[in-house]
Amino acid sequence: MSRLGIFIADGCEEVEALTVVDIVRRAKLEIDMISINGTKQVTSSRNVTFMTDTTKEEADFSAYDGIILPGGMPGTVHLGEDDTVSQVIREFAKEGKLVAAICAAPSVLGQAGILNGKKTACHPGFEEKLTGAEVFFSPVVCDGNVITSRGMGTAVPFGLAVARYFTDDATIEHVKAGLVYA
């Protein structure tokens, strides 16, 4: 069974983070919410406080098949400034493991040099931060081991694309039915 990690920073967009976690778990995949704050408690950009599963200090990154970055401000800034996040996403990209980001967070992938020659999407206004990428305005863009998406309104299709990367069409159709997703 595939196992994923999602980095969570104070100031994240909670819908982008928690929707992906929910969909991935509905698809019967494992996912750990990983706080970069040194504590399992995180407060989102909309002042929603929730608990993560682990912290970056406790996480075993070798156990993950993919890593996800939710957007939100200033959460994206915090992700981009974190050395562990930068190291992990570069390592995963180099190893061909899934690296996925939504909203403003694809800018962190661009900053890390992961998007060179890749097709990507992001929140409007962050296009210039996708260094070396070809930018599309589709809700979700999949290019090899990189999945990117535009924002909170695209969190469901983004979560489904992440889950589909590790599963099959039948699983995704089952998840969609449970979500009442057209």
Automatic annotation (TrEMBL):
Gene Ontology cellular-component annotations: cytoplasm
SUPFAM superfamilies: Class I glutamine amidotransferase-like
Pfam families on file: DJ-1_PfpI
Coiled coil: none
InterPro entries: Class_I_gatase-like, DJ-1, DJ-1/PfpI, Prot/Nucl_acid_deglycase
Superkingdom to which the source organism belongs: Bacteria
Domain DJ-1/PfpI: 6-163
Cited NCBIfam families: not_thiJ
Database matches in PANTHER family: PARKINSON DISEASE PROTEIN 7 HOMOLOG, PROTEIN/NUCLEIC ACID DEGLYCASE DJ-1-RELATED
Identification of the protein by name: 4-methyl-5(Beta-hydroxyethyl)-thiazole monophosphate synthesis protein
Organism, scientific name: Roseburia faecis
